[in-house]
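[INFO] parsing input record for Ltp family lipoprotein
[DEBUG] input buffer:
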Amino acid sequence: MKRAVGVILALSLCLQLVGCKTIPKREEGGKESSSPQMESVQLERLSYKVPADWRKVKGDQGYYHYPQKENEAGFLSVLYSEQDVSAATDTEMLYDVYDAVLEGMEKGADSFHLIGKERVKLAGVEALKVNYTERFDPHGVYTLEAYIFVDPEKKGMYFAIFTASDALKEEMGAQIAPITSSFRFGGKGISWGDASTSGGATESSSSAAAGDNSTGSSSQGAAGGQGGSSHAGASSSGQSSSVQSSAAQSDPSQSGGTPASGATAEQKKALSRAKSYLGSSAFSRQGLIKQLEYEKFSHEDAVYGADHCGADWNAQALKKAKSYLNTAAFSQPGLTHQLQYEGFTDEQAAYGVSNCGADWNAQALKKAKSYLNTAAFSQSGLTHQLKYEGFTDEQTAYGVNNCGANWNEQAVKKAKSYLKIFSYSRQELIDQLKYEGFTAEQAAYGADGAGL
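[DEBUG] output buffer:
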């Protein structure tokens, strides 16, 4: 059931992009100003704020907010599903539910590419934050930042998903932290009503609901996991100036793993928590500081914990690289960008990638097979996708030539996926398949197999 929710959610996102060419009338008006007005929206028990000049459309599952006139630029979707997950009595069980939903989203998507995921707090509850890219035909690849979470009683599931084209990344990214920091759960019995307009900026929050200081740029950072994009370090560069200044003033190499004399009680707690995190996962210095701040430690105490925990950040980068390779396939530049996105320095990322022991040909093959498990590709389309991921020509050729794909059957699969959304004639379908890189013979075979 949880996986089905994810598949339905992925389809609803696709329909929002490919449908609704006529722009619906706004339900509320917004006035332009140098300091944008925010309007409050209520969805079941969740309230949140969005810029008042974003066009708002009410759907079956929630609300869609469009920053620009054209739907295709991207949007924020805040959705609700009545799913009772109260049986998840502890944190690990709850995150198992979130992972199952994410798996469903991946299976229901076209060319889903996971950039990274992390556990955060949102509106006072445990949430899963996911950065990924997804292809929405015929519009191309979009960058997404999703938050999956439940209400405090675990009687309903919520999704907040920021979907941006390249043209919208900067504008959308700048609004992620203000919007997520405004998320609040009210008492029982709150109805799904219309939004009310409210002036002023959203309240700030030191919890994970604020999306941390890098959240506003993580959409750009997500793109950095692809094909050597120059945006790869956007997440680390998006850290607050106080983090950067502390990095300049503190020498992590002096970390001893024990509290310094005169450490405060909160600093000792932060240090203990930092060691606990490092015992179960790998972190960059910046990532560890962010995680401690999620736990509501002050920035100063979080920096203290990170700088006195005794971590070898090169070793952490290597550990993180290996953990990624255990769960997904990466090209060499893709893995480098992912580590940089996690907050590792260029040197630390290079160390992790150089020492992880990856066979990049095998990674290209693994990536090719993972794509074919979730979507349909022509031979040239799969070649293009692997190159986009940062694989060399030789690695790409190895992956494509050894993936075992039947390109005729791929054409049928692609044709059927199109007909679920579009009403194509036979010739229109053949033309679309040829546009996707299938040969004329493969395209005709695909149309035949789809029943046209």
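[INFO] Confidence is low (pLDDT under 50) at residues 15-35, 188-255.
[INFO] shutting down worker
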